[in-house]
Amino acid sequence: MEPMVTEPQVLRAGEPGDERVQSVASPVAPVRTVSKSPTRIALARLRRDRIAMICAAICVAYVLIAIFAPLLARLAGQNASDLHQDLIDEFGFPTIGPTSEHWFGVEPRLGRDLFARWVYGARPSLIVAVAVTTITTIIGVVVGLVAGFSGGWVDRVLSWLIDLVLSLPYLLFAIASSAVLVAIFGGPDGAGSEDVAQIRFISLICVLSFFGWASLARLVRGQVLSLREREFVAAAKVLGIPTRQVLFKELLPNLVAPIVVSVSLALPGYVVAEAGLTVLGAGLIEPTPSWGLTISAATTYYRADPLYLWLPVLGITILVLALSLLGDAVRDAFDPRTRR
Amino acid sequence: MLIYILRRIASAVSVVIVTLVASFGLFFVAPTDPAGTICGQRCTPERYADISASLNLDEPVVQQVGEYLKGLAVGRTYHSGGLTIECDAPCLGYSYTLGQPVTKLIGQALPVTVSIVLGGAVVYLIAGILGGIIAARRRGTYLDRLMVGTSLGINAVPYFVVALLVSLYVTFLPHAGYHPLLENPLTWATGLLAAWLTLGLANAASYTRYARASMIETLGEDYIRTARAKGISERRVVYRHGLRAAITPIATIFGLDLAFQLTGAIFTEAMFGLPGLGVLTLRAFNQYDLPVLMGGVLIGSVVLVAMNLLVDILYTILDPRVRLG
């Protein structure tokens, strides 16, 4: 619901970051209302949402696990790369289940500690998702702002580029281009396995970023196209404010809602993309501890050693579930139409 | 209308051409040694020279692209180990690792992907739209909330996890495998059943929500009230009057989804071991089979661009409100 406002144009001209106390003139009696920025209103709504808070807590827990992975592993007295061949029988199956020494048991074949692999596995998922989301958001916002604001041939070129990226077959191209990236930055047999794993890690981030920015850029461009005709932009131009400042100080605060929505969809999306590509064998590779890698290795042992498969599956599923539900809540909170 | 279609076709063609040039640049110019990569680990100097010459790697880049385009139009000839291989008209290159023309490999893979995606589409369209109608008609009841909740839950689980778990644990379905439709339609259907159900039910979850939202909006329209007031049976009101209008937005989403799935059915293919386009590309990735990678990407983008074009054109026909200047 809109608050009592007599001069909507004046209010709309302000930025969302505007937190002045405004006295709204009324013919009967002066009413003092505190105007809150849309972002503050949204955050307040979010705090009242119990599911959102639970999901946020789960996400924070994952982040903490990822940050303190070495500490957690040391707490269990293990690390992610030690081989425990003594716990593996001649067929490659582990001879022990979860014990006080190996909390989640050990891997078949190599006998690495599963608890340590699991806590370290939170890292690539989160790093890839956060890195790609950050990169795509920055590129998408900048391209969208520039395309929408400048118009003319700049807009035409950038829009065409956006359309091009959006019409590429994403998965096929992701697989193909990471093959090439790996070939460029160190062939399959040239470098050591640590280096190749590192290259694959970076190339995965590059590939996902390359395909990710376009949809946000299109969204931002559309918003800017309508915003740039508004009075406050005209006013800023008349005042002689430099274009860069108009873009980032005047327009950007008005784009908070679509950007937040896009980020809320992107984070779980990239967790899934990383894990999915890794499971297919086109993402991260050994020796990086990654849930996707564990899943793809565990599919052969799913009957003999269900825990081996289910731990990373649950790890990813719960993370994605929490991120998506939190994202839904954030979208609802930022969507003025669902305000109660 | 005609001008609009022509303009869309022109832009679609421009995208495909740029994709071709860009992927050509990516695959054959950027890596230091494409011939060596294609040739593989046990590479003899003769074979290396063969491949280099066949791919015109010693010529300027423009000429290489020209040769590739010429191969697409009229075919070209490759040399491998003293053998001469004729690659017929739409020639996408020659896979030295598999010893077969890329066009043939893709020709074998594409029907698999199309079968999976179309069969899955039948499942999710029927289940999703029916589910959406039921939920919309019982809006606000426990059944409605249960359906929406379930569908959100299913969609929150990553698709590859769903496909993986189904392929591992759901053992009562017939063993997945691809048999050509024309040889035996029954084995074709049973072999694909697991993939259809997985793809279908995972997508049915989101289609239930689309159909529900669209149906609720339509059922609130004045003409539905008029239809009810005329005394038409509720079934007729919902399915004849309501569904007809509610289906348009779903058709748009469906078109885009179909295009995406044709190039992205890779998880379904990989988990059920079906040799489609995605699995072909994946195999090419693992063996650094550049010609196949290039062909897969190219065909993928042609399919995607063509589907998007088709959706845009069909939309103007489906929805009479869309008028083009």
What is the mean pLDDT of chain B? 82
Q: How many helical elements of chain B?
A: 13
CATH A-level architecture of the largest domain in chain B: Orthogonal Bundle
Quaternary organization: heterodimer
Number of helices, counting only DSSP H or I runs of 4 residues or more of chain A = 13
Note the gap between the termini of chain B: 8 Å
Biggest sheet layout of chain A: 2 strands, antiparallel
Sheet-strand content of chain A, in percent, reads under 5%
Low-confidence stretches of chain A: 1-26
The coarse silhouette of chain A is globular
**Helix/strand-derived class of chain B?**
mainly alpha
Mean pLDDT level of chain A: 79
Low-confidence stretches of chain B: none
From the alpha carbons, calculate the radius of gyration of chain A and give it in angstroms. 25 Å
Radius of gyration of chain B, CA atoms, in whole angstroms = 24 Å
Structure in words:
The complex is a heterodimer of chains A (340) and B (325). Chain A is an all-alpha fold. Chain A contains 13 helices and two strands; from the N terminus they run H-E-E-H-H-H-H-H-H-H-H-H-H-H-H. In chain A, strands 1-2 form a two-stranded antiparallel sheet. The radius of gyration of chain A is 25 Å and the shape is globular. The termini of chain A are close together. In chain B, helix 6 crosses helix 8 (185-219) and helix 9 runs antiparallel to helix 10. In chain B, strand 3 and strand 4 (100-101) form a beta hairpin. Chain B is mainly alpha-helical. Chain B has helices spanning 2-29, 34-39, 45-54, 61-74, 102-137, 142-156, 159-169, 185-219, 222-229, 234-264, 266-272, 277-286, 290-318; strands spanning 76-80, 83-87, 94-95, 100-101. Classes of the chains: A mainly alpha (340), B mainly alpha (325). The interface between A and B is large, with 41 and 49 residues.
